[in-house]
Amino acid sequence: MKIAYADGQGSGDVLWKLGWQGDFTLTSGGPSQWFYGQHGRAILADDGHQMTLGVFDDGNYRVLDDSASPPLQCGIGAGPACYSRGVIYQINQDARTAQVVWQFLPGMFSFWGGDIRRLLNGDMEIALSAGAPPNPLADSMDFEVTHATPPKIVGRFPDGAFAYRAFRLPSLYPGVTWRTVP
To answer: Which of 9, 95, 125, 180 is the most exposed place for a label (fewest CB within 10 A)?
Structure first.
């Protein structure tokens, strides 16, 4: 949601809602292309009219077909398994349209938590809080991927059990520079 905040001086009114059944038309695919159970939004650019928004999309109960009643969702009844992804939308706030312009599908389902951010080198960092092999109910995974289409994995970092987000820190040791190992 976008709220009329204006540095605490706004009305607090909801200006618009983004997502399935929100105020925007998705111009790049059906309801499955929206985010579900999202976390870690990253505003990559915003001029008040156009916004580039990164979202970690858990994918919980993703609507696959909203023409059925009830809608076909992943993880429910006959619906297929859910999946998570890092996704970037181009949002036209004036026309109320949204388009998927980039996504990274790690082939895992993180049923909670996660994050997306752009690194200084232009790559994207996608953190899954759960769902990485070998224990899909405990292990977290952090990816560095190129911002190309299709994305290329530059680094893959297991984080242990249920890490909510991952952050890059510079080396704490003088003269030592961390390097990414694919």
So the answer is: 9
Express each pLDDT in 91-140 by its tens digit.
Answer: 999 999 999 999 999 988 888 888 999 998 999 999 988 765 555 555 78
Cis peptide before 150 (omega within 30 of 0): yes
76-89 pLDDT tens trace:
887 798 999 999 99
| Nearby residues of 52 by Cβ (< 8 Å), 6 or more positions away | 43, 44, 45, 46, 88, 89, 90, 91, 101
Termini Cα distance of the chain? 37
Q: pTM, whole model, 2 decimals?
A: 0.87
Spatial CA neighbour of 138 closest among 110, 157, 166: 110
For residue 71, the 8-state DSSP code is P
Taking the domains of the chain in order of start, what are their residue ranges? 2-161
Partnered with residue 46 across adjacent β-strands are: 51
